[in-house]
Amino acid sequence: MQRKFNVVIERDSEGWLVASVPALHGCHTQARSFDELDTRIKEAISLCLEDEGDIPAPEFVGVQQVAVEV
What are the residues facing 9 on neighbouring strands? Predict the structure, then answer.
């Protein structure tokens, strides 16, 4: 069975691509290239599903950037 998850990808201050899966607590990885990141996040998702078991897939609503004064 194939499942789909939303993945958030950001670039950190050192140039690493960082991917996280909001639906799976603690499911994240990093890589230098998108190809490598794709492989790594699929592995991370598989490992997280082994730990968490069957969870319902959430519905994607959107992404929003919020500005705050610091």
Answer: 19
The rounded distance, in Å, linking the Cα atoms of 22 and 26 is 8
Q: Which amino acid is at 7?
A: V
Residues 54-64 have pLDDT tens digits of 677 778 888 88
d(CA 32, CA 52): 28
- In angstroms, rounded to a whole number, what is the distance separating the alpha carbons of residues 63 and 52? 25
Q: Is 53 left (phi over 0), alpha (psi -120 to 50) or beta?
A: left
User: How far, rounded to the nearest angstrom, does the alpha carbon of residue 42 sit from its chain's CA centroid?
Assistant: 9
